């Protein structure tokens, strides 16, 4: 029989994974019974390949009752899934918010799944990443240690979510549990080549370091208009040469004092392109700050 984790591994898309999490939270009694062997006239569910399918069900008899429920709900969650991130945690002890059926802030986390005393899975809106991590650290630091991996959802034409989850779990124990580390995959392709991105220093962080990177992204996004953000990126791509110096000076002259001071204080021209790209990817996951206008 399938365990809750087996059902999660059956998810092909982020919407199916989210629908499965909701199903496990609301229907703790999992199905029983095994479907007939596959043949020309009959067979088990065409999704889970385990449970019997009804002859007159909503899915034209193709899926078992559980898979029909998950697929039907997944159809309503596609837009939510596209704006969500997946979190797999392997820690020395569960966060306080997940013990004994506890929860994070309702606006932050969709139905979480607790695998055992050290592992958990959850999904959250991509703009809630920073407040969720802040809450995690505030309520569980400094005792919480381990490895938390964060990655985006996938669609039908990409690698299935169950496969991505299994690939992430393979690397969960590669670091000692001496502190809390965060591995942030901005793109799905990074999951299959983590070592190359780790060498650039843009994939795995201590939790305070990653929160600092999110804070910088929020400030950067708040102080620069979208067209100014694009101009900064195009100039930084030129490299450190005379042409870049010329355009950089023209760019700074057109910015407000706060944005100009920020860029100069960060010495962003000395950053590697990998670090610059990470800053721009993190901007998608932070909110604007309401900054006071200069008098």
Which descriptors apply to this entry?
alpha+beta, 42% helix, single chain, 295 residues, 3 domains, 6-stranded mixed sheet
Give your account of this protein's structure.
- The protein is α+β, with helices and mostly antiparallel strands and 295 residues long.
- The protein folds into three domains: 4-78, no CATH class; 83-192; 220-285, no CATH class.
- 42% of the residues lie in helices and 11% in strands.
- The longest helix is centred in the last third of the chain and has 17 residues, at 207-223.
- The model has no long low-confidence stretch (mean pLDDT 89).
Which strand-content bin applies to the residues?
5-15%
Widest β-sheet, arrangement of strands: 2-3-1-4-5-6
Count of helical regions: 12
Give the termini distance in whole angstroms. Answer: 67 Å
Poorly predicted runs are none
Number of domains: 3
The helix-and-strand class reads: alpha+beta
Largest sheet: 6 strands, mixed
Sequence of secondary-structure elements: HHHHEEEHEHEHEHHHHH
């Amino acid at each position: 029989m399938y365990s809750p984790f087996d059902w999660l591994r059956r998810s092909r898309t982020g919407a199916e994974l989210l629908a499965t999490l909701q199903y496990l939270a609301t229907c703790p009694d999992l199905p029983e019974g095994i479907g007939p062997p596959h043949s020309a006239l009959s067979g088990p569910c065409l999704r889970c390949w385990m449970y019997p399918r009804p002859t007159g069900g909503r899915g034209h008899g193709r899926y078992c009752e559980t898979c029909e429920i998950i697929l039907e709900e997944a159809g309503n969650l596609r837009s939510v899934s596209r704006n969500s991130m997946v979190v797999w945690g392997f820690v020395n002890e569960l966060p306080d918010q997940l013990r004994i059926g506890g929860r994070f802030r309702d606006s932050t986390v969709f139905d979480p799944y607790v695998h055992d005393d050290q592992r958990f899975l959850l999904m959250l809106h991509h703009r809630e990443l920073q407040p969720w991590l802040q809450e995690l650290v505030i309520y569980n630091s400094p005792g919480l240690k381990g490895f938390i991996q964060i990655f985006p959802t996938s669609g039908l034409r990409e690698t299935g979510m169950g496969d991505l989850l299994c690939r992430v779990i393979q690397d969960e124990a590669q670091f000692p549990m001496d502190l809390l580390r965060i591995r942030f995959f901005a793109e799905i392709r990074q999951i299959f080549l983590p070592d190359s991105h780790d060498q650039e220093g843009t994939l795995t962080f201590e939790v305070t370091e990653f929160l600092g990177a999110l804070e910088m992204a929020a400030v950067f996004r708040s102080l620069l208009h979208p067209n100014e953000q694009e101009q900064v990126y195009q100039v930084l791509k030129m490299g450190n040469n005379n042409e870049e110096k010329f355009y950089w000076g023209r760019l700074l002259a057109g910015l407000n004092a706060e944005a100009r001071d920020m860029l100069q204080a960060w010495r962003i021209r000395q950053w590697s392109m990998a670090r610059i790209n990470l800053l721009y990817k993190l901007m998608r996951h932070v909110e604007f700050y309401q900054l006071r206008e200069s008098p």
